[in-house]
């Protein structure tokens, strides 16, 4: 019959640690945060699992530091109470977004605190920590020492007016608060004083050559992550303080460091290891984490926004080297550019953008997942607009994908006895179509492997577009009347292409893909290689119904009105955790 045999690419089962940047728990993430780390990591982790790889996907809430401490003081509540309530809410929202974490924890867990303190004592004992007195910013109005992120000013490199004391989010340079031009307190806007205090520093100068070698010789780093990191290394790495004077955090373990805590960025990045340890402890395997973090065969992949690149590509590798342990060096850090909302940056104070709790009240979660991956800002800043979302949902998700699925399955259900037809007698066009669908699926597979998630999804959609053209050309509704064998050949291959389509979509819209799989009468769990296997004639279909629906401009107006109503409810409440819509 000339059909393709099982053409699955043979691949070795690999072991992966997948980590998404730990969201700061001061507030609920917005859509930009979601696609920048958590959703992108989830899509890749789901893909790897479909391929049969061994995956541990972890993250957690970054609950320490001054923002939480200040917010708690202003509200008159304990910082830990504040942090734990917000952590529980964010964790629940990620579940509702169908994020497939193996563990979503937080930085105030007993496991994380113990691990961080033991880790830094090793770094200290290995001679990479030194002390010095330094002038640090202090706000006389708020009566607190200001962590780097709570002092803002003009960037000395690019002139950006709201650069933070640790990094400019505009040009990505790592900064020191003293480098800022016209610095001011991010809480009250007053001019800070400089006071002398003692801190413990990581001596990055001793690690610079090894870090440079890691970056230069790493073929897996994304172009933007590599370019940014090499630019920093060209300027030379300076020592960075790993301690702070704030109370809410992990107590520094160094001798004579009473009253000091570990800087949140220097402890949160270690969460990728502590979370894997916690995951295996929960599973009853105390030593299980070691094959993921101490076995050089393991691949470690992080997903972050571009502003987090320095801490993942330079700071964390430097810390792993300084520990003296044989940790696996991160394979790559996949970073995205910024997602804008209607042409501007997300802003909680201006209520500009959409937050992930609000999004769930407006559209089904698979619609959001599809749109965000379809427009993922992989190489440049990308704009989310409702007109773009409307086009992606209606023309791509509904018309191209949903319509093709419904055309194939409804026809088999109503005109071919409700079961997969036999291969029939294929014409050249039939073989050409399934060959093209296979090539597209392979291309999507290559894009997923390269963590080009946007390109992967666009390529998968092409399978549906080619399928719609194929049906229009072959017209099985006519063939079934005059040449049933030819109609069988067409619909057998159209059904086969749905296997490619369902598997290719599964990492992005898992619920819809599984629903489609069940309509096709196929058994779960889905596995990637199953797509390459020809359909089994006689397989009975399940209940067939439309997967998606169109969203009209009138619907958008109603959604925006609902969004405003939801926000009026949210901001009339007192506590941040009471403002979340669940």
Automatic annotation (TrEMBL):
<keyword id="KW-0963">Cytoplasm</keyword>
<dbReference type="InterPro" id="IPR033911">
    <property type="entry name" value="MetRS_core"/>
</dbReference>
<dbReference type="GO" id="GO:0017101">
    <property type="term" value="C:aminoacyl-tRNA synthetase multienzyme complex"/>
</dbReference>
<dbReference type="InterPro" id="IPR014729">
    <property type="entry name" value="Rossmann-like_a/b/a_fold"/>
</dbReference>
<dbReference type="InterPro" id="IPR029038">
    <property type="entry name" value="MetRS_Zn"/>
</dbReference>
<dbReference type="Pfam" id="PF19303">
    <property type="entry name" value="Anticodon_3"/>
</dbReference>
<dbReference type="InterPro" id="IPR023458">
    <property type="entry name" value="Met-tRNA_ligase_1"/>
</dbReference>
<dbReference type="InterPro" id="IPR015413">
    <property type="entry name" value="Methionyl/Leucyl_tRNA_Synth"/>
</dbReference>
<dbReference type="InterPro" id="IPR009080">
    <property type="entry name" value="tRNAsynth_Ia_anticodon-bd"/>
</dbReference>
<feature type="binding site">
    <location>
        <position position="348"/>
    </location>
    <ligand>
        <name>ATP</name>
    </ligand>
</feature>
<dbReference type="InterPro" id="IPR014758">
    <property type="entry name" value="Met-tRNA_synth"/>
</dbReference>
<dbReference type="Pfam" id="PF09334">
    <property type="entry name" value="tRNA-synt_1g"/>
</dbReference>
<dbReference type="GO" id="GO:0005524">
    <property type="term" value="F:ATP binding"/>
</dbReference>
<dbReference type="GO" id="GO:0006431">
    <property type="term" value="P:methionyl-tRNA aminoacylation"/>
</dbReference>
<keyword id="KW-0648">Protein biosynthesis</keyword>
<keyword id="KW-0030">Aminoacyl-tRNA synthetase</keyword>
<protein>
    <recommendedName>
        <fullName>Methionine--tRNA ligase</fullName>
        <ecNumber>6.1.1.10</ecNumber>
    </recommendedName>
</protein>
<keyword id="KW-0067">ATP-binding</keyword>
<feature type="binding site">
    <location>
        <position position="171"/>
    </location>
    <ligand>
        <name>Zn(2+)</name>
    </ligand>
</feature>
<feature type="short sequence motif" description="'HIGH' region">
    <location>
        <begin position="23"/>
        <end position="33"/>
    </location>
</feature>
<feature type="binding site">
    <location>
        <position position="155"/>
    </location>
    <ligand>
        <name>Zn(2+)</name>
    </ligand>
</feature>
<feature type="domain" description="Methionyl-tRNA synthetase anticodon-binding">
    <location>
        <begin position="420"/>
        <end position="562"/>
    </location>
</feature>
<keyword id="KW-0479">Metal-binding</keyword>
<feature type="binding site">
    <location>
        <position position="168"/>
    </location>
    <ligand>
        <name>Zn(2+)</name>
    </ligand>
</feature>
<comment type="similarity">
    <text>Belongs to the class-I aminoacyl-tRNA synthetase family. MetG type 1 subfamily.</text>
</comment>
<keyword id="KW-0547">Nucleotide-binding</keyword>
<dbReference type="GO" id="GO:0046872">
    <property type="term" value="F:metal ion binding"/>
</dbReference>
<dbReference type="InterPro" id="IPR041872">
    <property type="entry name" value="Anticodon_Met"/>
</dbReference>
<feature type="short sequence motif" description="'KMSKS' region">
    <location>
        <begin position="345"/>
        <end position="349"/>
    </location>
</feature>
<dbReference type="GO" id="GO:0005829">
    <property type="term" value="C:cytosol"/>
</dbReference>
<comment type="function">
    <text>Is required not only for elongation of protein synthesis but also for the initiation of all mRNA translation through initiator tRNA(fMet) aminoacylation.</text>
</comment>
<keyword id="KW-0436">Ligase</keyword>
<feature type="domain" description="Methionyl/Leucyl tRNA synthetase">
    <location>
        <begin position="16"/>
        <end position="409"/>
    </location>
</feature>
<dbReference type="GO" id="GO:0004825">
    <property type="term" value="F:methionine-tRNA ligase activity"/>
</dbReference>
<feature type="binding site">
    <location>
        <position position="158"/>
    </location>
    <ligand>
        <name>Zn(2+)</name>
    </ligand>
</feature>
<keyword id="KW-0862">Zinc</keyword>
């Amino acid at each position: 019959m000339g059909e393709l045999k099982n053409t699955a690419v043979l691949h070795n089962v690999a072991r992966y640690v997948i980590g998404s940047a730990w969201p700061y728990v001061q507030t609920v993430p917005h859509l930009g945060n979601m696609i920048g780390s958590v959703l992108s990591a989830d899509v890749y982790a789901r893909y790897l699992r479909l391929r049969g790889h061994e995956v541990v996907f972890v993250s957690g809430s970054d609950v320490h530091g001054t923002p939480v401490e200040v917010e708690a003081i202003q509200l008159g509540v304990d910082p830990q109470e504040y942090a734990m309530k917000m952590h529980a809410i964010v964790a629940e929202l990620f579940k509702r977004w169908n994020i497939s974490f193996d563990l979503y924890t937080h930085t105030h867990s007993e496991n994380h605190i113990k691990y961080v303190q033991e880790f830094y004592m090793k770094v200290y004992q290995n001679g990479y920590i030194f002390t010095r007195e330094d002038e640090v910013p202090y706000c006389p109005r708020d009566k607190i020492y200001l962590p780097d992120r709570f002092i803002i000013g003009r960037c000395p490199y690019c002139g950006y007016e709201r650069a933070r004391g640790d990094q400019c989010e505009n040009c990505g340079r790592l900064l020191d608060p003293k480098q800022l031009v016209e610095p001011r307190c991010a809480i009250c806007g007053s001019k800070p004083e400089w006071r002398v205090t003692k801190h413990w520093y990581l001596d990055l100068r001793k690690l610079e050559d090894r870090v440079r070698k890691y970056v230069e010789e790493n073929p897996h780093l994304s172009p933007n992550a590599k370019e940014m990191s090499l630019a920093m290394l060209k300027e030379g790495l300076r020592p960075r303080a790993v301690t702070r004077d704030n109370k809410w955090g992990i107590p520094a373990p160094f001798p004579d460091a009473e009253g000091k805590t570990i800087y949140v960025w220097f402890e949160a990045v270690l969460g990728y290891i502590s979370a894997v340890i916690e995951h295996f402890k929960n599973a009853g395997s105390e030593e299980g984490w070691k094959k993921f973090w101490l076995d050089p065969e393991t691949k470690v992949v992080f997903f972050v926004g571009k502003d987090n690149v320095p801490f993942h590509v330079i700071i964390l590798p430097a810390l792993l080297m300084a520990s003296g342990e044989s940790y696996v060096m991160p394979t790559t850090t996949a970073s995205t550019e910024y997602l804008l909302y209607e042409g501007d940056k997300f802003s909680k104070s201006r209520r500009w953008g959409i937050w992930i709790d609000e999004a769930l009240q407006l559209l089904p979660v698979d619609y959001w997942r599809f749109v965000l991956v379809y427009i993922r800002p992989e190489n440049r800043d990308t704009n989310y607009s409702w007109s773009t979302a409307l086009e992606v949902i209606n023309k791509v998700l509904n018309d191209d994908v949903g319509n093709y699925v419904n055309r194939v399955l409804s026809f088999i259900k109503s005109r071919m006895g409700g079961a997969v037809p036999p291969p029939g007698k294929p014409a050249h066009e039939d073989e050409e179509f399934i060959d093209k669908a296979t090539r597209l699926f392979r291309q999507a597979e290559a894009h997923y492997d390269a963590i080009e998630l946007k390109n992967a999804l666009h390529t998968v959609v092409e399978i549906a577009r080619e399928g719609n053209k194929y049906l229009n050309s072959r017209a099985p509704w006519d063939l079934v009347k005059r040449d049933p064998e030819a109609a069988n050949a067409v619909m057998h291959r159209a059904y086969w292409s749905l296997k490619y389509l369902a598997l290719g979509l599964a990492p992005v819209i898992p619920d819809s893909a599984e629903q489609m799989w069940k309509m096709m009468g196929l058994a779960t769990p889905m596995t990637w290689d199953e797509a390459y296997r020809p359909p089994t004639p006689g397989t009975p279909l399940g209940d067939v119904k439309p997967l998606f629906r169109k969203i009209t401009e009138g619907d958008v107006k109603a959604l925006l009105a609902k969004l405003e109503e939801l926000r009026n409810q949210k901001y009339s409440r007192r506590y941040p955790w009471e403002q979340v819509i669940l």
